[in-house]
User: Fold this.
Amino acid sequence: MIPYYNRVTRKIENEQVYGGTYLNWAYRNRLGFFLTDHVFSKRWLSRIFGAIEDSVLSRSKIDDFIRKYQIRMEEFEETDYSCFNDFFIRKFKPGVRNFSASDRDFGAGAEARYLVFADLKPRQKFKVKGLEIDLEELLQDADLAREFEGGCLLLARLCPVDYHRFHFPFSGLLTRHYRIAGALHSVNPVAIEAAPRVFLENERQVAIMEHPKFGRTAMIEVGALGVGKIVQSAYSDRSRMPLKFEKGLEKGYFLFGGSTVIWLLQKEKIKPSPDLLENSSKGLETWVPLGQPLGELIE
Assistant:
């Protein structure tokens, strides 16, 4: 069980970890970690696993998954799921989740468990399981990394039981996007404890966004163990830049597996929400519904 603070219930709750027995073996057992690092984290294996979740045979898993993890299906669009991946990327019904109308709010672009880190250093270790973030390695761009020194990092961890679509947190312009090849380690805290450089080594997709007041923001989707694919639904590799987008618009989605979205903001652009700051200082994640404010513009 992994404790986290639920913003809605205002209580500390325990996450029921999907595949917890396997994760403990894969990252806390010497043989398990060796095999995970050298075999299981490779992209070709996640592609095979993803193909299985795309098959009609995987439909049999859906009902058991809903019961075991108490998925509130009344919140999602009614449809006949063709496979487990189809269920995994289920959509909320219109109006179930809403973004704030205020242009001062930085909305939660993913329904997830959040940590916030302020006053970023170029090379930094965080309190949570010794997590390492090197801005230049994360972005694979030294000039861009310097723009976020002293700024803020918002980290959203999506569990397999969560809604797996991600959205734009404000309205603005997408000016650049690129992909970084890498491994596919788990992003679960159990894995991060064993492999603290996971966000520097996993496959990721980076989008650079511009806003008149929030300034330049990097939005980074990080692949993870079992994630067959990161899909961008708002644009493609051939899309012309800059591309205008609206707050709350779906940007894309992850196929099966736990995943992470990271936002980097420049110095003195955002004041993170008090509950995120307080809980993150204790190493405690905060579960935030899609669209709720993560912070407020500093003017």
User: Anything to note?
Assistant: The chain has a mean pLDDT of 86. Residues 56 and 83 are 5 Å apart (CA to CA). The chain has one domain: 1-291.
